[in-house]
Task: structure prediction
Amino acid sequence: MSFAQSWDFTPGARVVLDDLRKCSREYEWLEEPYVSPDGETVAMVAALPDAEFSLAVNGEVWEQTFDKIWYPRFSPDGRLTALVQSAGEWTMAVDGEPWEDQYGYIWGTLFSKAGDVIAAPIQVDGKYGLVSNGVAWETLYDNANQVVLSADGSATAAVVQVKPLAQADIETFQQGIFSVAVNGVAWDSIFVNCWNPAFDPAGKHVATTIRRTLYDYSIAVDGKAWTGAYACAWAPVFHPATGQVAAPVRKAGAWGMAVDDVMAWEPRFTQIWHQAYSPDGAILAAIVAPKFGEFTVAIGGQPWDITFPVVTDLVVSPQGGRVAALSSENNANFAVICDGKVWNGRYDMAWPPVFSPDGKHLAVTVRQGGKYTVLCDGKAYAQSFDRCFDPAFSPDGTHVLIRGIADGKVYRIVAPVTAFTG
Result:
C-alpha cells in the first residue's frame, strides 16, 4: 500500500494550524511554510534567540537546534527532512534526528518514489558525490553534478569529472573529461560532456546525453554510446516495459525522436523535448515546435492542432490515455491544455497538472490577482487562498485534497470532484 492510500479522504474542511505565527518557543522569525503531502503537518524554519535554528512543526519546535537550517522537505512517506549545519559541517536531519556523518556541504534532497530512501549530493574536502540514507559514495570526484536517484532508491548516479583539468586546458577538455558514476563507480567511457542521466524503472540501467566532440552529440546507455551522431540531443527516457531509450535528436537541421538510435519520429520539428511515456509504454508524448516559436504537444509524433508561445509541464495520465500540459505567453497568461483542448481561464501562474489515478480527472493549482485556488476539470474550487500547494486525488479519484493557507490559517480540505463549479 502506498503512503497516499493511507491518507484521510473523509470529505470536509479543517484547520491544521490556526496561526502561522504559533511557536512553542520564543523566536526571532519564522520562515516560509511547507505543508506535508497529506496536509496534516506544517513545517517552518524557526530562527531562535542566540543565533540558533530549528524547525517548528505544527507550532512545536524540534528539541535539537542547529547553527543553520534550510531546504525543509517532506518525503513521500511523510517524514520531514532538512539540511542542517553544526560547528561548520552540514548533514541531513530526518524528523529532528541528524545523520551521523557530516559533510562540507549538502544540498538538493532527493527521495525515492516510496520515500524510504533519502539522498543528496555532498562536498567533502573539495570532492563531490552523493549520500544515500546516510551512506556516502566511497569514491568522490572533482566535479559531480546532475544527480539522480532511481525510483526504488537502490541506486544513485551523477555526471562526474574523471580527469583533472588545468585552467584554460582546452585540449584536455576536448579529449573528454566527463563520465557517469553509478553508486560512485564511474563508467570506463569518457566524453567531452554528459547531461541528464536517467535510470530505467528498475534502477538497473542508466542513459545519458553525451557529446563526443564539440559537434557530435548522442546518447550512451550503461557507458556504451549509440553509433549515430547528431547535431544536438536532449535528455533520454527509458520505455517502462521494453527498456528502449528515447531521446530527441537534431539531424539535417530539424528535430526528431530516436529510439535506440533509430528515428521513430522523423526530423520535421524545430524543437522536441520533455518527452514522457505512459506507464505501460503505449504512448510517447513530447513538447514540440512545428514552427519556430510555436509550441504544442505531439503524441506518437503527431502534434496537436493548436500552438502556443510556450508549453511546459507535460504529464501523461496513470492509465496512459490522456495528456496535459501548461501553455503561457512570456511567463504570463497561463492556461491548461488537456487532450488537445484549452481550458477556459487565463492565470498569472499555474503549476504542474495532476491526474487522478484512473485518469478521469485533472487538477491544477493556479494563481490570479494574488489569490490561489485549485481547478478540477476546468472548474475552480469556490474558496481562494493566500497560498495553495499541489492538489492530490483520493485513490478512487472521486475526491481532491486541497492544502491552502488563508488569513494565517492552514487548511486541509477534502472536496468531491463535484464541488468544483466555478
Q: What stands out?
A: The helical segments are 170-175. The first strand starts at residue 12 and ends at 17. The chain has one helix and 45 strands.
